[in-house]
């Protein structure tokens, strides 16, 4: 048994040849790892140099499209020139878009790179469709917008009301515009006071009072009253008050008193 163990240990003792092979294997593995690491370093340097080269690619041309009538060209140039230092590839289109859309008159701005050296800018201007209060304007989304040269837009309809009522009053105005068009009447002003009372000014000078509720119903009653009783005397009518439950009060230019229309007078028209 002892002889067998001695023979086993003798057989397991590494020879000089096996030790050399193991050393060479470790050396080969180390060289391979070193080569791989060197390749990664070289690749990293190449990528870095490439990125730096791309970073220096300048924006040589800026192409601006869109119907621009009110946006100041100087303001547009100043914004664009302040965002071009990073070159075409690294330019943040999102940041530039947000900055452009903060300019007066800019509704939306879209940007696109066109290689090798061009930046395309598409601008859609705000379109004021109504005055808001004394100095502001509303766009088609009933958003308050900042404009320059406000005197140019003084012929727009005037809407006035408490803060936060822009959308609701714009909807009322659109309803008035659509419903009164067949009567050849155009609303030129709509206002709401602190008590929620609605007042409408028409293009013929008439003032229409609609109160603080039942907007659609009272507007419909006014339209019926206009067709039946007031159309032929439109230039004489100064004010129509539709806040009465069963009728209306009409004030004429030639008579200082209010002419009340009874429930029976309107019964056939409601």
TrEMBL record:
InterPro entries: Cell_div_FtsQ/DivIB_C, FtsQ, FtsQ_C_sf, POTRA, POTRA_FtsQ_type. The keyword Iron does not apply. The chain crosses the membrane at residues 31-51. It holds the Pfam family FtsQ_DivIB_C. GO terms for cellular component: cell division site; plasma membrane. It is found in: Cell inner membrane; Membrane. Keywords: Cell cycle, Cell division, Cell inner membrane, Cell membrane, Membrane, Transmembrane, Transmembrane helix. Gene3D superfamilies: Cell division protein FtsQ/DivIB, membrane protein fhac. Belongs to the FtsQ/DivIB family. FtsQ subfamily. HAMAP family: FtsQ_subfam. Essential cell division protein. May link together the upstream cell division proteins, which are predominantly cytoplasmic, with the downstream cell division proteins, which are predominantly periplasmic. May control correct divisome assembly. Part of a complex composed of FtsB, FtsL and FtsQ. This is Cell division protein FtsQ. It comes from Congregibacter litoralis KT71.
């Amino acid at each position: 048994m002892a002889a067998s163990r001695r023979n086993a240990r003798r057989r397991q003792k590494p020879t000089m040849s096996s030790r050399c092979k193991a050393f060479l294997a470790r050396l080969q593995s180390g060289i391979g790892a070193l080569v791989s690491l060197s390749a990664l370093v070289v690749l990293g340097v190449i990528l870095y140099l490439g990125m730096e080269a791309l970073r220096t690619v300048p924006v040589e041309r800026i192409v601006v499209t869109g119907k621009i009538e009110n946006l100041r060209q100087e303001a547009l140039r100043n914004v664009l020139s302040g965002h071009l230092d990073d070159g075409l590839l690294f330019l943040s289109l999102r940041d530039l878009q947000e900055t452009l859309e903060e300019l007066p008159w800019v509704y939306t701005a879209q940007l696109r790179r066109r290689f090798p050296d061009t930046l395309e800018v598409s601008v859609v201007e705000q379109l004021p469709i109504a005055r808001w209060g004394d100095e502001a304007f509303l766009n088609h989304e009933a958003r308050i917008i900042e404009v320059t040269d406000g005197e140019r837009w003084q012929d727009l309809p005037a809407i006035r009301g408490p803060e936060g009522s822009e959308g609701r009053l714009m909807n009322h105005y659109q309803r008035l515009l659509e419903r009164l068009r067949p009567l050849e009447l155009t609303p030129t002003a709509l206002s709401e006071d602190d008590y929620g009372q609605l007042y409408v000014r028409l293009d013929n000078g008439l003032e229409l009072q609609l109160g603080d509720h039942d907007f659609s119903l009272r507007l419909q009653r006014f339209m019926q009253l206009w067709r039946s009783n007031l159309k032929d005397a439109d230039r004489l009518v100064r004010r129509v008050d539709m806040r009465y439950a069963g009728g209306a009060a009409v004030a004429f230019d030639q008579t200082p008193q209010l002419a009340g229309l009874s429930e029976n007078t309107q019964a056939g028209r409601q």
